[in-house]
Design a protein that fits this description.
The protein is α/β, with parallel strands linked by helices and 272 residues long. It is 29% helix and 28% strand. It has one domain: Rossmann fold, CATH 3.40.50.1580. Strand 8, helix 4 and strand 9 form a beta-alpha-beta unit.
């Protein structure tokens, strides 16, 4: 295991957790959108696959509700109907800070049950391209989660979200594995030593958002689940891309499963 020694009396700002629910900067402050009557459905899917979101629009299965906006561009929020239930769908960006910010904004606009679907790098050689993974814990090797939960090495997923994902996957006969993921901020610092260390502590995958998603959901008191598929591989001596972004049918299927998981989790919340 890699260890870092902190010099004499040094402390890291990252561990100075403040549990106050209100920050000085609030979602949409100064933009007036919360006063304009914009409300999202209580169910929301955060879909990392841009081509899947585009297909919903092109096939007229979605209508625009609003936009989430940053300096990098605009992220439309769409409404789709599944089993008669309205669901908000949007691409949440990449990386924990941006995704957590958009998640916060979706919550402010009314989302209460959220499911994310995306790809992840596989750390184990048993994962074929497209293997579905349900993360139930995340190693916090990023910064965002520490602003939402006290310092710890790991953060756990919402148990109800994990159960809903497992129920949907089982119902459809989709093989899946459940386990720990490694959330990092730095894709170009996934060194061989770190990969081996994370694998040794039980991580199945590496990605950039799960720890933050889990922490935000817990802090804001909303339901959350995540579905990942094994994309590129870090299981061998060299990185293998496996053309993971071209697994279009896998990505489309994972979105449908995520949407159904969102409905399942929303129903469970309604009767709890």
């Amino acid at each position: 295991m890699i260890r870092v020694e902190i010099s004499d009396n040094a402390s890291l700002p990252l561990v100075e957790f403040d549990p106050s629910p209100a920050g000085m900067v609030r979602p949409f402050a100064g933009r007036g959108r919360e006063k304009a009557g914009v409300r999202l459905p209580q169910l929301a899917v955060l879909c990392f696959f841009g081509e899947v979101v585009d297909a919903l629009v092109e096939t007229h299965q979605a209508r625009v509700l609003t936009e989430l906006v940053g300096e990098h561009g605009r992220h439309p929020v769409y409404e789709v109907i599944l089993e008669g239930t309205p669901i908000a769908v949007f691409q949440p960006g990449i990386g924990a800070p941006l995704c957590a910010g958009f998640m916060e904004e979706a919550i402010v606009l009314g989302a209460r049950t959220l499911v994310a679907c995306g790809g992840a790098g596989s750390l184990v050689d048993s994962h074929v391209l497209g293997q579905v993974i349900v993360p139930d814990r995340a190693v916090r090797d990023e910064g965002t989660s520490f602003h939402y939960q006290p310092p710890s090495r790991e953060v756990s997923a919402d148990p109800a979200g994990v159960a809903a994902a497992e129920a949907v996957l089982t119902r459809h006969g989709v093989p899946f594995v459940r386990g720990k993921t490694w959330t990092t901020d730095a894709i170009y610092r996934e060194t061989p030593a770190k990969v081996e260390a994370r694998r040794a502590e039980g991580c199945l995958t590496v990605e950039m958002e799960a720890a933050a998603f889990f922490a935000v959901a817990r802090f804001r008191g909303v339901r959350f689940a995540q579905l990942l598929y094994a994309g590129d591989s870090l299981a061998g001596p060299v990185w293998a891309s496996r053309d993971w972004q071209q697994a279009l049918s896998t990505r489309a299927r994972l979105f449908r499963l995520a949407a159904e998981t969102c409905v399942e989790l929303g129903r469970a919340e309604a009767v709890s």
